[in-house]
């Protein structure tokens, strides 16, 4: 039994229900599921995906078409599934193509409207495109590894898998919001920033701290991811080298800033960069700052963008959401 490559490495680790499917004789067919799916919903492998939809009283598609037709067409769509027994889910069809894809089911607040949820139909389209690059890289190096056995090819495959895992976790953060949060720890901002810096390919960039940084009650994993995405945003949109600075806000407000000496974000685009899928230069998934905004919002923090003292981007994380 096979699984789409994008989720092969992490299907079992997903906290939300997930299934993978393949088109068999033109029929979207369930190929694999995780424990969360089996517990909450349950459809056996080799069953058509339509058997899943039959378990729900209502199935709405963001595209307005029959879900099975959209799966057959290889479209990235968002579905609303609801029933009295199984509750409500927003299902995100990720990395679809002519062969199959994956569906992630996020539990949904029944009081929210369908349009209140993240437009993952748009995001998934971006993700499916962005996943192609590490998939292609991994495939090319796998072929070379079979021929030569050189360690460098296995390292490249490992890096490509890490990239795919990060994309998958980003979209889960967008989809799950506060459900993914556990803000029960007093966290050192400096320690979180240093830990995040170690996970990012910083190349010739340097990290600089300005003043004594505070502690804050936060979710450890999400706070680290916030810094990781801020650092990647600076490095990916900067030059070949530079400095990222982390410091406290000078106006006495509880919070910190991350500033760089890159090209900056034009004032007219500063609100747009928080929209999932939006990129200034057309590169990447356009999820980095959207993830930052979502994590901050889940903590009741606010995010502001300004120009740094060196003409780059300055992003402020204010811990008091009312300011």
TrEMBL record:
Top-level EC class as recorded in UniProt: transferase
Reaction catalyzed: ATP + protein L-histidine = ADP + protein N-phospho-L-histidine
Superkingdom of the source species: Archaea
This protein's record includes keyword Transferase: yes
Enzyme Commission (EC) number: 2.7.13.3
Residue intervals of the Histidine kinase domain: 126-323
Record keywords: Kinase, Phosphoprotein, Transferase, Two-component regulatory system
Entry-linked InterPro entries: HATPase_C_sf, HATPase_dom, His_kinase_dom, HisK_dim/P_dom, HisK_dim/P_sf, Sensor_HK_Regulatory, Sig_transdc_His_kin-like_C
Pfam family, one: HATPase_c
Gene Ontology molecular functions: protein histidine kinase activity
Biological process annotations from GO: phosphorelay signal transduction system
Protein name: histidine kinase
Source organism of the structure: Halorubrum laminariae
């Amino acid at each position: 039994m096979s699984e789409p490559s994008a989720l092969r490495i992490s299907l079992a680790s997903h906290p939300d229900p997930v299934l993978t499917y393949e088109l068999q004789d033109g029929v979207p067919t369930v190929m694999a599921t995780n424990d969360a799916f089996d517990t909450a919903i349950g459809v056996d492998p080799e069953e058509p995906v339509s058997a899943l939809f039959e378990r729900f009283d209502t199935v709405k598609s963001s595209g307005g078409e029959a879900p099975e037709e959209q799966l057959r067409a290889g479209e990235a769509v968002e579905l609303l599934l609801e029933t009295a027994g199984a509750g409500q889910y927003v299902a995100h069809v990720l990395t679809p193509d002519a062969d199959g894809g994956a569906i992630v089911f996020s539990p949904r607040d029944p009081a929210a409207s369908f349009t209140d949820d993240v437009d993952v139909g748009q995001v998934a389209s971006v993700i499916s495109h962005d996943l192609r690059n590490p998939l292609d890289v991994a495939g090319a190096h796998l072929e070379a590894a079979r021929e030569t056995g050189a360690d460098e090819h296995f390292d490249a495959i490992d890096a490509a898998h890490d990239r795919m895992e990060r994309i998958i976790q980003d979209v889960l953060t967008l989809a799950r919001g506060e459900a993914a949060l556990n803000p029960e720890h007093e966290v050192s901002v400096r320690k979180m920033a240093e830990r995040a810096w170690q996970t990012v390919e910083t190349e010739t960039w340097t990290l600089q701290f300005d003043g004594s940084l505070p502690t804050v009650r936060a979710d450890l994993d999400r706070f680290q991811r916030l810094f990781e995405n801020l650092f990647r945003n600076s490095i990916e949109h900067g030059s070949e080298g530079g400095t990222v600075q982390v410091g406290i806000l000078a106006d006495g407000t509880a919070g910190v800033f991350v500033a760089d000496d890159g090209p900056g974000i034009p004032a007219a685009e500063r609100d747009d960069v928080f929209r999932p899928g939006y990129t200034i230069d057309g590169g990447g998934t356009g999820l980095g700052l959207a993830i930052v905004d979502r994590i901050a919002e889940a903590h009741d923090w606010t995010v502001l963008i300004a120009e740094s003292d060196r003409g780059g981007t300055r992003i402020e994380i204010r811990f008091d959401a009312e300011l």
